[in-house]
Amino acid sequence: MEVAGALDVFRKSRDRNVRYVRYLGDGDSNGFKKVVDDKPYGDEVEVRKLECVNHVKKRMGSRLRELKKRLGKTKLKDNRAIGGKNRLTNNDIDKLQEYYGLAIKRGGSDLQQMVKNVWATYFHKISNDDTPQHGLCPKGPESWCGYNKAEALHQTFSHKSHNLPYEVMVQIKQIYRDLANPDLLKKCLDQKTQNQNESFNNAVWSKVPKNVFVRLNTLKLGIYDAVLTFNNGFTSKLDVYNKLGIKLSEKSVAALRNFDTIRLKKAEKSALDMTKEARVARRKRKLALEEENEDPDDPEYGAGMF
């Protein structure tokens, strides 16, 4: 469905004298591959692939979790497994994923800075009191790097509880090499996300659930309704009803306006930093609970895995 839809959009754009020169999608998007092969605009116009920064960020977490699971109880050079207390925990994986995402966003449209930012997070975590490696981290009293911040303020800093063991960091270095690759990061320079697309998809599925079969006319009606509501709110339906000769009661009109008010308030609430912090806090509590239930003799065991 995605492939057919992508091809249809690009082909129809020719009839309207529009050229889509950038394609925002997942890393494994089959739609983009088919569009490139189809050459909807011939050889003179190249369609460039962009990556959703949120999806790229999640690759860090996925790769680290896969590595931890694959190594399991395998002993590293320090005769300990990769997981367990003071090792690569689920909470650490979550933090490294967030640090990677911030490195991309802070890089803006500067590819070299973006690559530097990613490696800064790696060497920041491998540092210890004997061998601090914060040369790539930002300097000054406002730095996110605790070591450089303390140095600028002439304060002491301890790496204890802030770093990961050298043997663990060696194991994950290849993941950083892959995810710091300029060929990947240059697709993030536009700092685009698919949040709007995913939000619209949810609007469509609320009208026509994807796990329920419907006929084509029902599907079209659901999509039209979703587009109308998503772009202009519930009250936009009033124009449709008027053109159909349907007169709504005052209570019905008031209900539509109330739906729009609720929608706006919900959006504002979701955007509040307080709400975001609450979501992060809930996730941290969940990860902490998983770590408490983890069997130290079996790194592959975790709450909810079976």
Automatic annotation (TrEMBL):
Region annotation (Disordered) ranges? 283-306
> Pfam families, alphabetically?
Mutator (PF20700)
Q: Where is the composition biased (Acidic residues)?
A: 290-300
Q: Which residues form the Mutator-like transposase domain?
A: 1-145
Specify the protein name.
Mutator-like transposase domain-containing protein
